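User: Design a sequence. Structure:
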């Protein structure tokens, strides 16, 4: 008699692998906000910035009799007024990529709202 064992039929799902490689200019940057808009060619641009207080442009110290550095002479300090928004990068993308990033961000925020622990892993858009 023939083989009567049930043989499962395996269908191989098409697959593609993505390798993530950091480019020469890869770095981690903190973002407090973004400013941007549409480009004349119909793309979206977003310049990410971090906020901080100003760093003095000039600082004058007293010199002590022994030659060491004394206190800061605040009346001689030159500091830019206001809050600094330091832009680290401007990203330009197509409308389709912007929609994918919007979807990705929305899903990430929804997970945070559900209380998903931090460091739960990376996801791609």
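Assistant: Done.
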């Amino acid at each position: 008699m023939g083989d009567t064992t049930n043989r499962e039929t395996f269908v191989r799902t098409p697959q593609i692998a993505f390798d993530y490689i950091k480019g020469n200019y890869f770095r981690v940057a903190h973002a407090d906000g973004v400013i941007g808009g549409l480009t004349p060619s119909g793309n979206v641009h977003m310049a990410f910035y971090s906020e901080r207080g100003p760093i003095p442009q000039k600082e004058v110290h007293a010199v002590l009799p022994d030659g060491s550095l004394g206190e800061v002479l605040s009346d001689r300090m030159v500091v830019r007024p206001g809050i600094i928004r330091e832009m680290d990068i401007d990203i330009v993308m197509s409308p389709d990529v912007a929609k994918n990033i919007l979807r990705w961000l929305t899903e990430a925020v929804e997970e945070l709202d559900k209380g998903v622990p931090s460091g739960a892993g990376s996801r791609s858009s």
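The mean pLDDT is 88. Helices lie at 95-113.
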